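tool_call: predict_structure(chain=1)
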Amino acid sequence: MADRVAGVEIRLLAARDSLDALTALLHRAYTPLVGIGVVLPEATQSISDTQQRIAEGQCFIAAMRGRIVGTVTVCGPQDLGGSPWTAGSGPFRNRDTAHFHQFAVAPELQRQGLGRRLVAACEQWARERGYKRMAIDAAEAATELRALYRRLGYEVVALGLPQEGGGRSVVMEKPLDHSPLREHLRTLARYNLWATRELFVHVAALPDELYHRDAGLFFRSVHGTLNHLLLAEHEIWYRRFAEGGSPVTALDTEIEPDRQRLNERLIEGALAWLPLIEVWPEARLLGRLHYRRIGGDAVELSFAAALAHVFNHATHHRGQVTAALTAMGRPCPELDMVMMLRQENP
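tool_result:
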């Protein structure tokens, strides 16, 4: 499902964050599993247990308006002396394999993309440290959770340990090596986010009269062009890629009249592509995208080429806005991709 939870920040756990709140979140997220016979420590563990497990690796949280609504801890390989439970789980001791645990999203926010973003943060952490694979231990009876992992590219590679209360777990793995194609799409998505932010630095300085004036653009004003970008990229194309849907909406529909909220939604939408590109299986990137055009015609395109089009489309309309800014005698940003690359690698 698409990531539609606005205002959520994925970041490292900080000293100011409450371990009481984090432990309570784990209890809320894992207690429903007890009802299907899956007994995991996260459902009842103490605050000191939470702290000890966090200390094994790096903890990420999802924060919304000062509240912890998601968490996960990612670790490197374990050693048999410090983690005797790995005696029957070789993948967790492999020197090129990372793993994550204490993975939870607030029940009221599940199935909205936060889990995918947390997993993507773990995978990025592991790649940056040279790990080639990510492993997880999932309860065999937790079918919905295992289905999520499969959608994120994880496959069962071994049986895990017997669990308290009966049943057992399975070990699932995902390769983290990136193909040149995934790297290219990731760069395009990063550029899309960077250029959107850079553009809004200058658009924000426009008075309302100029912002709404007919500037001779295809969608007339700066506001009209940005509304089209939000509609096309995030309400149409994003749904085609993330949900398999084919929304039908006129391309000049004003879906966000408030200019500040339009700014925020475009940036949130640009952010949402990044975790998707991280977790889509390689076979999907190399496959085909099937959808229906607004007029109802069925279309089949190269998945990767269609995604590249989405980012190219945004570049096209950002160029129109910068031209309008120049015509109005206003400063405009330098949006060449090389500028972003130089900033990333000074």
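agent: Residues 303-327 form the longest helix (25 residues). Proceeding to next step.
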